[in-house]
Structure to design on (756 residues):
C-alpha cells in the first residue's frame, strides 16, 4: 500500500512525461507543478494549429468490471477511448492529464499493470502525460483529459470554416449536407460481440461476467478489450494529406453505436440519412457462438453495438473518388447517404431510414449502447 | 430521474458555455461536438500567452460528505479548487471541462443545486464550460479540468525563463533562491477550522459530521465551504501589472497546508526555508469553540490545515518593496525567508525551520492535510 506521493512518483516514472523529439516544442512545463503549460503556437504547427481538448471518465463497475478486465487492458483502453474523440476531430494527439482514484489495495500490482497498459497506449499514440491528480477512493475511478493539435490545410469543405487567416482544419459533426456519402472504417459491432462473450459466456446463458478461457477467443475479445483507434486516418480525412484538403465533411467516432452516432451527425448537421443494411461491415459471428446464442444478429450488433471507436464520416460526392477502399490496411466502406430532412415535421421523428436486405425501407430505431450501468438500470 | 442526454442538456443550459465578450476569440468550438477547439493564439493574447492546464477530482465521501455539504457549495468548490491551481501559476482562468458521474436519484434537485453553485463560480471566475462527460455511478464523482491563459510581461525573475522571444509569464514552484522572502495571502488555517466544526461539532466531541445550526457559524464555515481564490493577485504577481514585471519568484496555492506546500516549493527550488511563527496570519479561534475544544491551536491549524487556497509565494528582496500590505483588500504577510540548503546531507531531512514565539529554532514537521479518506486511513 503506497501513500499519495509514492503513487504519484510511480505514475511519473512509468508513463512518458516528455514530448516526442519531433515537434516537441509545444510542451513548456509538464508534470510536477501546479499545472501544465502548453505553448500556444509552436514552430512546427504555426499559428493555425489550434488545440483540441476532451475529457472522459472510465469507472469500475460501469465501464469495466473488477475481476474480469485486467489492469493492463483497463489502462490501455482508458487512454484509447478518450483519445478517440480527438481522432474524430482529425487532431494529432499530444498530451493527457490523468486523474486516478484508487482503493489502497490497488496501489501495488494492480497499479503497475494499469500504468503498463496506459504507457503502451501513450507510446503508440505519441502522447505524454502532462498533469494529474490522485485520491484514495472505495473503487477505481479514472478520468482522462486529452489534448491534441488540429491539422492544418488549405481548403475547407462543409460548414465549419474558421475565420479568414486561420488555416486550422477540424472535423465536426455539423458539416454534412444532403448528397454526401456516409462511410465507416473497419468492422462494426465487434466490440459489442466481445462484451457479449464476457457478459453471457459461450452459450449465451452464463450469468456471471468473466473472460472465456482459451486463446481462440482473444481475437473476438480484442476489439472490446483493446480497441484500435485510427489517428492517421482521422488526420488524413481532416486535411493532413498531400493535397492539404479536407476529405470528410463531418465525422464522429462510433462510441455509442452506429445508429446513435449517425443520429448525432444528423442532428448537428440538420439532415437525414439512409443506410443500406447489406453494405454495413458487420462483425462476423463464429458458428461456435451461434449454436448456443441462437439470436446473435450481426446487423443488430453493427447498428447498435457501442465502443467500436471506428470513424463514421460523410464525404461530398466529388471528394469520394479520393477515398481508397483501404487506408493503411483499414477498410473504408460506403454504407449510406445523407438526405434532406423531410419537409413535414411529423415525419422527422426518425431522421434515419434503413434499406433492408429485402429492399424494404424502414425507420431506424436508436438503441445506442451507453454503459453497463445504464444498461442494467433501464 | 433523467437519462444521459437530459442531464447533458441541463448542464449546458445552466453553466455558461460561451466566452466573455472581452477577449473571447480564443474559443473556436465549445460543447456539443466530440471535443472542444481552443485557438492556439488569439489577437488578445498574441503569441506569448501560453495555455495552462490542470485536472482535479472531487469525490463524495473523500472531499465532501453526503448529507453535510449542500450541492450548491459542492458545485462552487469543485470549480474553485481546480481553478486555484491556475491562479497559483499566475494564469487567467478561461475554460473548464466537467466530468460528472451521478446516481440516478441525484439528477433532480441535487443536480440543479450543484450546477447553480458551479455556474456561480464560473461567472465569478470568468470561465466557460467547453466540454464534459456524464456517467451513471453509485456515488457522486466529479472531475474538473481547467484551462487558463498565461500572463504576459517583459522581464522574468527566477529560473523559469522561457526561450527568447516568448514573453509568457508563469509562476512555478521552482524559482525561489536563498534570500527571497516568503509571503502568504489572507488567513491560514481558516478552512481547517470550518472542517473541524463540521467533523467534531461545537464541543469537539460530536462523532457524526454535520453542519452546525445557526447563522453565527457561517463565517467560520465559509472558508471551508466556499473558498475564495485570488485570481487578480496571481496575475499581478506573475506580471500582469503596470510594470509588466514578475513580482514573485515562485508560487503555490495552499491546498495541502502551509508546511507541506512550502516544502513543495523548497524541493522544486532546491532550497530550505525559515518560518517565523509569530508572523503567520493564523485563523482566530472564537472563545465559544475553545471552551469545548481545549486543544485547538491556531498555529497548528495555520501550519498544517489544508484547503485554504491562499497564495504562498516568494519574492526577491529588491521586488519586496513593490508589495502592498493589502492587495485589493487581501492581506499579504511576510512569514519567513528562503535559506540555502544545509551543506551536510544529514541535516537536510527537514528543509524548513520554525522560529517559535520563544525564539527557539525547531525543525518543522510536515503534517499536511490530504483528504477525509487519507486522514481516516492513516
Amino acid at each position: 500500500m503506497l501513500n499519495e506521493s509514492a503513487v504519484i512518483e510511480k505514475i511519473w516514472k512509468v508513463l512518458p512525461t516528455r514530448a516526442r523529439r519531433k515537434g516537441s516544442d509545444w510542451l513548456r512545463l509538464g508534470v510536477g507543478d501546479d499545472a501544465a503549460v502548453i505553448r500556444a503556437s509552436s514552430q512546427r504547427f504555426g499559428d493555425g494549429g489550434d488545440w483540441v481538448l476532451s475529457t472522459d471518465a472510465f469507472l469500475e463497475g460501469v465501464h469495466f468490471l473488477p475481476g474480469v478486465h485486467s489492469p493492463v487492458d483497463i489502462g490501455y483502453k482508458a487512454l484509447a477511448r478518450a483519445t478517440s474523440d480527438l481522432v474524430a476531430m482529425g487532431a494529432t494527439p499530444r498530451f493527457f492529464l490523468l486523474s486516478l482514484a484508487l482503493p489502497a489495495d490497488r496501489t501495488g500490482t494492480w497499479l503497475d499493470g494499469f500504468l503498463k497498459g496506459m504507457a503502451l497506449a501513450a507510446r503508440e499514440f505519441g502522447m505524454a502525460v502532462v498533469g494529474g491528480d490522485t485520491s484514495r477512493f472505495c473503487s477505481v475511478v479514472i478520468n482522462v483529459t486529452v489534448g491534441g493539435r488540429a491539422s492544418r490545410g488549405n481548403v475547407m469543405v462543409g460548414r465549419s470554416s474558421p475565420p479568414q487567416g486561420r488555416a486550422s482544419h477540424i472535423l465536426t459533426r455539423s458539416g454534412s449536407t444532403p448528397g454526401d456519402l456516409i462511410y465507416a472504417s473497419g468492422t462494426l459491432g465487434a466490440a459489442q460481440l466481445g462484451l457479449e462473450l464476457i457478459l453471457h459466456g459461450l452459450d449465451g446463458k452464463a450469468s456471471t461476467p468473466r473472460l472465456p478461457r482459451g486463446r481462440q477467443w482473444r481475437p473476438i475479445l480484442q476489439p472490446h478489450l483493446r480497441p484500435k483507434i485510427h489517428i492517421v486516418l482521422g488526420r488524413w480525412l481532416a486535411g493532413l494529406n498531400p493535397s492539404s484538403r479536407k476529405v470528410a465533411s463531418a465525422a464522429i467516432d462510433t462510441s455509442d453505436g452506429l445508429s446513435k452516432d449517425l443520429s448525432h451527425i444528423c442532428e448537428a448537421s440538420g439532415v437525414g440519412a439512409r443506410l443500406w443494411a447489406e453494405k454495413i461491415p458487420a462483425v462476423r459471428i463464429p458458428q461456435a457462438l451461434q449454436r448456443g446464442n441462437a439470436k446473435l444478429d450481426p446487423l443488430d450488433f453493427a447498428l447498435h453495438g457501442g465502443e467500436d471507436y471506428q470513424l463514421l464520416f460523410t464525404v461530398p460526392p466529388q471528394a469520394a473518388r479520393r477515398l481508397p477502399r483501404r487506408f493503411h490496411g483499414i477498410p473504408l466502406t460506403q454504407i449510406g447517404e445523407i438526405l434532406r430532412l423531410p419537409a413535414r415535421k411529423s415525419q422527422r421523428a426518425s431522421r434515419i431510414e434503413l434499406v433492408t436486405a429485402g429492399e424494404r425501407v424502414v425507420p431506424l430505431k436508436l438503441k445506442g449502447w451507453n454503459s453497463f450501468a445504464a444498461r442494467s438500470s433501464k
Q: What stands out?
A: Chain A touches chain B through 72 residues (CB under 8 Å). The first strand of chain A starts at residue 27 and ends at 29. The CA atoms of residues 42 and 332 of chain A lie 33 Å apart. Confidence is low (pLDDT under 50) at residues 154-166, 370-378 of chain A.
